Amino acid sequence: MTGLLASVATLGEMEIVRAGGADIVDLKDPARGALGAWEPDGLRAAVARWRSWGVGAPQLSATIGDQPMDPETVLRAAESVAATGVPLVKLGLFADGDAAACLAALRPLARRTRLIAVFFADLGVAFELIPAAADAGFHGVMVDTADKGAGGLRQRMEDDAIDAFVRTARARGLLTGLAGSLSADDIAPLARFEPDYLGFRGALCDGGRTGTLAAARVATVRAALRSPRAAA
Ligand SMILES: O=C[C@H](O)COP(=O)(O)O
């Protein structure tokens, strides 16, 4: 079954999505961009909260912020998030620099932290960077959207290309995730491609992705992921 990655902006939201059955609790500040980062103090508090959950807890991930594609900058940001104890660190591959050099620069960190490279459907997905991420020791790859006002994943990327992304990544042993202004209606069509996770923020909130996360919305998405055909 495809799992639920739920992006949260506060400790209170962490508890809501944990109670709602999220498989990955993803620490992200949506007001700061597509991959907006929490402050280090907040990350440390979130790690402490996550550890207090004990056995059976969902996984914990965090984003490093929308960083320019400069290897030193990206490495520093990823190391600073990893240093807080977050076990899964997500970083975006933007179109403004040398993403391949950034992936290579992260190789030492990938030996001690599980890294997820996030591609952006609306910036153009460079398929050749999927094996580059695997070669650098990354744990997984996702596709998301960078411009949250410009349509969801399925408006910005053809189904065939989404399918090819998942298959290419899986063939390299990478964990796979799909996100990008997804709604419950996107679950059945995307579940067909059997990604490991679908990621959500906006659909979980009253008032859009910078609004208030609502338990009822989490329940709707969780149920649709359990029975995608019934939800179609
Ligand atoms: O990683 C998943 C994202 O937080 C999805 O955010 P979104 O549903 O608002 O595009």
Secondary-structure blueprint of this entry?
Blueprint lengths: L2 E6 L2 H9 L4 E4 L12 H14 L5 E5 L7 H12 L5 E5 L6 H7 L1 H4 L3 E7 L8 H7 L4 E5 L8 H4 L2 H13 L3 E4 L8 H5 L5 E4 L4 E2 L5 E2 L1 H12 L1 H4 L1
Parallel strand pairs: 1-2, 1-8, 2-3, 3-4, 4-5, 5-6, 6-7, 7-8
Antiparallel strand pairs: 9-10
Helix pairs in contact: 3-4, 4-6
Query: What is the CATH architecture term?
Result: Alpha-Beta Barrel
In the CATH hierarchy, what is the superfamily? Aldolase class I
What structural class results from the helix and strand content?
Answer: alpha/beta
Unreliable spans:
none
Helix content: 25-40%
InterPro entries: 4HFCP_synth, RibuloseP-bd_barrel
GO molecular function, one term: lyase activity
Protein name: (5-formylfuran-3-yl)methyl phosphate synthase
EC number: 4.2.3.153
Task: Explain what this protein looks like in three dimensions.
With 232 residues, the protein is of the alpha/beta class. It has a single domain, classed as Aldolase class I (TIM Barrel), CATH 3.20.20.70. It contains eleven helices and ten strands. It has an eight-stranded parallel β-barrel with strand order 1-2-3-4-5-6-7-8, surrounded by six helices. Helix 3 packs across helix 4 and helix 4 packs parallel to helix 6. The longest helix has 14 residues. It binds glyceraldehyde-3-phosphate. Glyceraldehyde-3-phosphate (G3H) binds next to strand 1 and strand 8. One of its GO terms (molecular function) is lyase activity. Catalyzes the formation of 4-(hydroxymethyl)-2-furancarboxaldehyde phosphate (4-HFC-P) from two molecules of glyceraldehyde-3-P (GA-3-P).
